[in-house]
Amino acid sequence: MAMNDKKNPSSQSDLWLYNTMSRKKELFKPKVPGKVGMYVCGVTAYDLSHIGHARVYVSFDVLYRYLKHLEYEVCYVRNFTDVDDKIIARAKQLGEDPLSLSRRYCEEFHKDMTFLRCLPPSVEPRVSDHMPQIISMIIQILENGCAYIVDGDVYFSVDKSPEYGRLSGRKSEDNRAGERVAVDSRKKNPADFALWKSSKEGETYWDSPWGPGRPGWHIECSAMSAAYLGYSFDIHGGGMDLVFPHHENEIAQSCAACSSSNISYWLHNGFVTIDSEKMSKSLGNFFTIRQVIELYHPLALRLFLIGTHYRSPINYSDLQLESASDRIYYIYQTLQDCVDFLKQQNIELQEKTIPGDILNCINKFQNDFVSAMSNDLHTSDVLAALYDPMRIINDLLNTRKGKKQALRAESIAALEKSIKHVLTILGLMPSSYSEALQELKQKALHRLKLTEDEILQKIEERTSARNNKDYERSDAIRKELAAKGIALMDNPDGTTWKPALPPVPSP
Ligand SMILES: [Zn+2]
Fold this sequence. Notes:
47% of the residues lie in helices and 14% in strands. It has helices spanning 51-69, 85-94, 98-115, 131-143, 217-229, 243-257, 289-295, 298-306, 318-345, 356-374, 379-385, 387-399, 405-426, 433-448, 452-467, 471-484; strands at 16-19, 24-27, 35-40, 73-78, 147-150, 153-156, 193-198, 213-215, 232-239, 262-269, 272-274, 277-278, 314-315, 486-491, 494-499. The strands form 5 sheets. It has a 4-stranded parallel sheet, with helices on both faces. The chain is elongated, with a radius of gyration of 27 Å. The two termini are 49 Å apart. The model is unreliable at 1-10 (pLDDT under 50). Bound molecules: zinc ion. The site of zinc ion has 3 residues, from loops.
């Protein structure tokens, strides 16, 4: 009954992914059975990453985890752009060596990925370590007649690429020079883009057959994907903003260097918006991952990000993060209650004794999980499907005291196991439920600018009011805390608290 027991091995291929190239969902079929090559464009390491980046890498981490769950052997390549104009400009500002600046931000990025529970990719190539591969690819493109040299710069000739525009759907007349390429009258076609840029006085440079310089942005991904995955591989992904010009240019370069170059699936995630505007560094309307996880638990942020289908836009707001924190608290509390309950039971669990209705619930949950994930990774549907088994767990824990103890324990154990399995694939499993609950409480206190002592004092005040039958006072304290976002729970052994969504004020 475990989800990874494959009754039907052919189910491994039942994954439908939306391919930006064909503009439709396609059944995923790897080029080599059982193996997947996946390249995802990484960050330009010159500053802390924002929530838009978090969304890209969480989305592809879910895909990576799901492919591994389907027992594919995945080679996941995610690069670091550590040579770039922005890095050079920032380093100059700070009086720092560009490579040491980018090394610092690569480390910061790794910390963010650890917070967000993103698994490390198989390889994380950096531009500065791949100059020979990049230069030899440019030589190949020049030899094939698809690029030209102007004063130490090398440009790709878009006119030599008959398929140019296929991915983005742009016709050549609406091709403008890419954002990162300054308009240059030396270009044969304004849409031509730099493969190699000659260095200015005092800038970091690498030697090349065309003189000292550095690679253009797009060529690095063509060269590094080819270095680790070959010219023909399965999945290439990134944020939707990379479709044009970055990925369009990558295709043109790779095909110009090697005619058999072929990527089966192009996957792109949607933007994070703030007030319906795309969150981006250049627009200045962004929150860094660090800023957000200062206030909210990183797994609440992850839940928020996967709570919407990866291709849809997602609107960031405090309310959304509050609600994600509340949802994840409920999930972990339910599972912690299971663990506590089972610890008290001390019995040998046997699957056979699970009653039919519980088994049905588990099977339905597993089927919902598989059908949602195989339909272009509808993680939001998986999260919605979690509520039935959790409701039943809470039911079993709280209201079925009369039922046979053993049966109850078996059922709770089986439900917890199946939820845990799904949370693991979604990357939402904390190292311990109780630790995560404690952290969620601490974050809530931090947001509310309260200390736990202040709450405990209120609880004490309320208890003595209740003891004195001053119910008006005890009610007022409960309401006062509720209005702030603190809920009180009265148990036989006393009153405890948890963070809760503050009530919506009545109009
Ligand atoms: Zn790239």
